[in-house]
UniProtKB/TrEMBL annotation:
InterPro entries: Carotenoid_Oase. It comes from Nocardia callitridis. The keyword tRNA-binding does not apply. This is Dioxygenase. Belongs to the carotenoid oxygenase family. Its cofactor is Fe(2+). It is an enzyme of class 1 (oxidoreductase). Keywords: Dioxygenase, Iron, Metal-binding, Oxidoreductase.
Length: 439
């Protein structure tokens, strides 16, 4: 069935059912050192319709790779309470059911738990085979929504994240969990209005929030049928800096030009001379978002923000004019000066781009034939953070209406895939995922 609704058409359309396939055909050679799961989440409305691309029920597509073999592929809905029981977010008494949500945005692993995440509710835990265990609330300690973009500190193993709300203050709450999954702290952050916070930044010494002019809009929410946020010219864009060693301390706010950022590539504290500490942040920046409606009709490009903590100002520089999204690094360098960053592009020339942020150069692989990659996760190939590895991504071929999982060597993207795993059918366009290596 075809539809004229863009977020339900072409490869945005949901697949109708769950399948399992084993011993998948491979072109090239899967690197023998890769053993684990590649899991990626995305919207797949089970009623075959949703009010916005961002609002469909989560479906995780998983590939099991072991010892050079593509062992299996499976796709499973995340069976949240809204999926199984038509649970609603707001109860009749006005309180919120934090487990009611679509869990459609990301998959992470923390403290041995595999979690499907969406920013408007609690995570849901999954088994490795993608069966749903249930909502995950840090043993009852988490009392807000949880972002789909938490950050794991590679030094401490702590999980840093936040939750944002639209109905009542505090609109924003910062959380930190220990490596063993214990929720260590939750602290409210004062923002003037319920702004949409999709992602944030972690460095070795700081967390940085992006308070940007896309604000909850009650008339849009009352009309229903989409994302209830709109651009506001009268809301000042700011970055809020919190010291990690003083998590209940003051947030310092820094003005930036109006923009929206869904995704951070990485951030780090720059070694600096006495009295000139700076924080460098790389983001995929949109010049504006959702002024007239809820369509994403402008492109994001890679920008660098440099916060000068002594001078109290932010330098803003565009790094590239190519449109891109879904930025990823070697996550072992989260919050550290990662030399390389990877970005996906769609449109006429679907490609993966690798930026060398130290030299200002880049390399890329264009898939050709209208084929478009999804987000590419970085898979380490050696024990050295920042060393060589692989990019893995689902790639959709519109001519054949099917998808592959491709594996490229990160240090030689132009050579193209070292392995292409043929999937039994297409994987709809989705959001984020992770390579979960066997532990
Ligand atoms: Fe995201």
């Amino acid at each position: 069935m075809t539809t004229a609704i863009p977020h339900l058409a072409g490869n945005f359309a949901p697949v109708a059912d769950e399948i399992t396939a084993t011993d998948l055909p491979v072109t090239g050679a899967i690197p023998a050192e890769l053993s684990g799961w590649y899991l990626r989440n995305g919207p797949n409305p089970h009623a075959a319709a949703s009010a916005h691309w961002f609002l469909g029920d989560g479906m995780v597509h998983g590939i099991r790779v072991d010892n050079g073999r593509a062992v299996s592929y499976r796709n499973r809905w995340v069976r949240t309470s809204t999926f199984t029981d038509d649970a609603v977010r707001y109860r009749e008494d006005g309180t919120k059911d934090y487990a009611a949500g679509v869990a459609n945005t990301h998959v992470i692993r923390h403290a041995g738990h595999t979690l499907a995440l969406v920013e408007s509710s609690l995570p849901y835990e999954l088994t490795p085979n993608l069966d749903t265990v249930g909502p995950y609330d840090f043993d009852g300690a988490l009392r807000t929504n949880m972002t789909a973009h938490p950050k794991t500190c590679p030094t401490t193993g702590e999980l840093h994240f936040f939750g944002y709300e639209v109905t009542n203050p505090p609109y924003l709450t910062y959380h930190r969990a220990a490596a063993d999954g214990t929720l260590l702290l939750s602290r409210p952050i004062d923002v003037p209005a319920p702004t949409m916070h999709h992602d944030f930044h972690l460095t070795a010494e700081h967390v940085i929030f992006m308070d940007l002019p896309v604000v909850f809009d009650l008339p849009t929410a009352m009309r229903g049928g989409g994302m209830p946020f709109r651009w506001r010219d009268d809301y000042a864009a700011r970055l809020g800096v919190l010291r990690r060693d003083d998590p209940h301390g003051e947030i310092r706010w820094f003005a930036i030009d109006p923009c929206y950022v869904f995704h951070a590539l990485n951030a780090f504290d720059e070694p600096a001379a006495e009295g000139s500490a700076r924080i460098v942040l790389y983001v995929m920046r949109y010049p504006e978002l959702w002024r007239a409606d809820g369509q994403v009709d402008l492109d994001a490009t890679l920008w660098r923000w440099t916060i000068d903590l002594a001078a109290g100002v932010v330098a803003e520089e565009q790094i590239d004019d190519r449109a891109g999204e879904f930025p990823r690094i070697d996550d072992r360098l989260a919050g550290i000066d990662s030399r390389f960053g990877h970005v996906s592009t769609r449109g006429d020339a679907g490609a993966l781009i690798r930026y060398d942020l130290h030299t200002g150069t880049s390399s890329a692989y264009e898939f050709g034939g209208g084929r478009v990659p999804e987000e590419a996760s970085f898979v380490p190939a050696d024990g050295r953070p920042g060393g060589d590895g692989y990019l893995v991504s689902y790639v959709y071929d519109p001519a054949a209406d099917r998808s592959d999982l491709v594996i490229l060597a990160s240090n030689d993207l132009p050579a193209g895939p070292v392995a292409t795993i043929a999937l039994p059918r297409r994987v709809p366009h989705g959001f984020h995922g992770n390579w979960l290596a066997d532990e």
